[in-house]
Design goal:
10-stranded parallel β-sheet; about 40% helix; Urease, subunit C, domain 1; 2 domains; TIM Barrel
Amino acid sequence: MVMLKDIIMEADYLVCCNEKNQIIKDAAVYISNSKIVAVGTKKAIVKDYSATKIIGGKDKILLPGLVNTHSHSVQALLRGRADDLALLDWLRTVVLPGESGFTPDEVYTSSLLGFAEMIRTGTTTANDMLTTHNTERGIQAAIDIGIRARIGKMLMDTNNDSPDIIKEDSETNIESATRQIEKFHGYADNRIKYSLNARFLLSCSPELMKRIAETQKIYPDLMIHSHASESKAECTEVEKTYNMSYIRALKNMGVLGFETILAHGIWLDDEEYKIIKETNTRIAHNPSSNCKLASGICDVLRYQEMGVLVGIGTDGSPCNNNFDMFSDMRLATFLQKVKHLNEKALPARKVLRMATIEGSAALNWEQEIGSIENGKNADLVMVDINNLNALPLYDPVSHLVYSASGKDVSLTMIDGKIVYQDGQFKTLNYETLKKAVIQYQNSWIE
């Protein structure tokens, strides 16, 4: 991966996702030292700037890199092993045993596979949960491939249904997480930021949640990332265990706030919605996962009308079964239209903002990424529109949300570095990765 000092990127359409939702035709972006320096028409940029490299943009849309606000890269090797199961069965029978059986090399391979698919399909930032053991290998995969990530080990210390290997006492959880925070938080010029990943309340004791809240307050820009109120069965179990509803329990443990993001957030009562708003907690909406696991439909419109920040996430391979944010953008808008029986619900421009600038804001990263504006990091994606599904093209945003797929991505840039272009990864050997994945696949078949 070579970083060029100066680059001009051209495009037929530049979709900025800035405050004005600006779209520029026959556009260009000038990048210097990994930062966006100038945005405008191709004629103006070429007139005012020169660059070491010019990337042509004929039949291309240029947009900000997509922000995946909830992912499990490390579950990529379990793709196709947990189909057609309810959430708790899905966890108990496949996902937790699968994660617990990973060797250090398999943690690296699985995470690398997940991040590679994200990059291939236009994701430049991931809010990622790893597993409980050999976590540093998963973080190393993020470092090596060049993705931007909030990332950390999975924290869990209870749940009798979990394999013993992935459970640690609360003190061991916090000690190991703290060592990793000291090593990785802010790594690679802040491209890697650690996160405290509490799996969910059925696998985390009140003591562990309390220690997570205490640890988060010690370090600047350290977020808590957890699942919450995903399925009715899960919420029922939480109420039995804690004698209160999910969001109330989280509030009592002191883990809500602007540096907390909760995946799912489907089954809330009126007071719980108010708690999310009052604490400025963020939500990661995972439409494909919620559909496949029959968990329910998150009321995104209600959150947004209250002023709650909501991003989009793919979740993991066993419950999606891909990391294509274009697919989840499309499904997110369709689900809200059906839920509210309102064809105007969550229009294309809004859902694209959820996947870019609003997703970055949900991760407290909006000052650096999420839109194409002067001074921001050059996390950019090119989408090829020289395809049948782009004919005719009246509105580039409509195309991105309703017609495009991750397979249309022709270039992914992170921090001014091209990490994928025209079928070629610049930061990994695809054949080596494929060989390692097939080796793991064969271990199941045998």
